[in-house]
């Protein structure tokens, strides 16, 4: 009998190849935008940035925000993803 090998890691490609996460990410971004009293974005505006990560997604909603204010927004965005 062959020994079973345990996986040490799992890699996921969530930019639409396996799962379409863009609607969830856009919803999280729009919730953050509402909290900050900014207008929401359409899914089509967010989708091109999803595969570039949280920084790109948050930058799409908050252009021109840098430094610690941006970092706080990024952390809130990531935190909100855990609640969905």
If you had to describe this structure to a student in words, what would you say it looks like?
By secondary structure, this protein is an all-alpha fold. The chain is built from four helices and no strands. Helix 1 (22-35) packs across helix 4 (67-81) and helix 3 packs across helix 4. The longest helix has 15 residues, at 67-81. It is elongated and about 60 Å long.
Q: Outline of this structure?
A:
It is built from 4 helices and no strands. The protein is mainly alpha-helical.
| Helix content, binned percent | 40-55%
Q: Number of helix segments?
A: 4
Number of strands: 0
Instruction: Assign an overall shape.
Output: elongated
Average residue pLDDT? 88
Rg over C-alpha atoms, rounded to the nearest angstrom: 16 Å
Structural class: mainly alpha
Listing every helix as H and every strand as E from the N terminus to the C terminus, the arrangement reads: HHHH
Proportion in β-strands: under 5%
Give unreliable regions as ranges.
none
Largest sheet: none
Q: Give the distance, in angstroms, between the N- and C-terminal Cα atoms.
A: 43 Å
